[in-house]
Amino acid sequence: MKKIKIGQIGTLHDHAPGKIACIRQFPEIFEIVGYAAESDEQYEKVKDRNEFRGLKRMSEEELLNSDVDAMLIETYEYDLVKTAQKCVDRGIHVHVDKPAGANAEDFEKLLRDAKRKNVVVQMAYMYRYDWKVTTYIDTS
After folding, report:
1. Among the residues of 33-95, which ranges form H helices?
2. Residue 70 near residue 95, CB atoms below 8 Å
3. Smallest Cα–Cα separation from 98: which of 121, 114, 74?
4. pLDDT given at position 131
5. I want to staple 3 with a disulfide (CB 3.0 to 4.6 A). Which of 31, 36, 86, 138 is the partner?
6. The whole model's pTM is what?
7. Beta-strand (E) ranges in the chain?
8. Which of the residues in the chain have pLDDT under 50?
């Protein structure tokens, strides 16, 4: 089986360490290309954490231009959709953490563009405490 080449853009989101740690548990499925921290200061904060130790640090542009199949988006909350859009524009599948951006319009555009490009967008949201979903986004 061909491994999925995956990267992570962002280390600021609360779930960033957990997402990369989860991927690392499946080396037979995923090849981690690298990760991009938001700044040198942020890199210094995470580089020695077990979750990121030994992984290649790359710039966002290096990751976006690499031979990656999918990207974990773990930036500051209001940059999530903007960053995911950059991936979708390049035909890269994304797992984007919550929330779905600062407004519904940007998220709807992301979903429309992903559908048009046949790219998967996985939104990280668990319905552990929500008993019914009240919003539907039409991507047609």
Report:
1. 40-46, 60-64, 80-89
2. yes
3. 74
4. 47
5. 31
6. 0.87
7. 4-9, 30-36, 70-73, 93-97, 121-124
8. 131-134, 136
Judge whether 121 and 98 are in contact, CB under 8 Å: no
Cα Dmax for the chain? 44
What pLDDT does residue 133 have?
A: 47
Enumerate residues 6+ apart whose C-beta is below 8 A from 50. Answer: 21
Handedness of CA 93, 97, 102, 103 (dihedral sign): positive
Nearest to 29 by CA among 63, 67, 70: 70
Q: Kind and range of the H or E element at 109?
A: helix 104-117
Query: CB-based contacts of 104: which residues, under 8 Å, 6+ apart?
Result: 137
At 136, the amino acid letter reads Y
C-alpha distances out from residue 117 to 20, 27, 69, 88, Å: 26, 28, 14, 8
Predicted pLDDT at 126: 59
pLDDT recorded at residue 101: 79
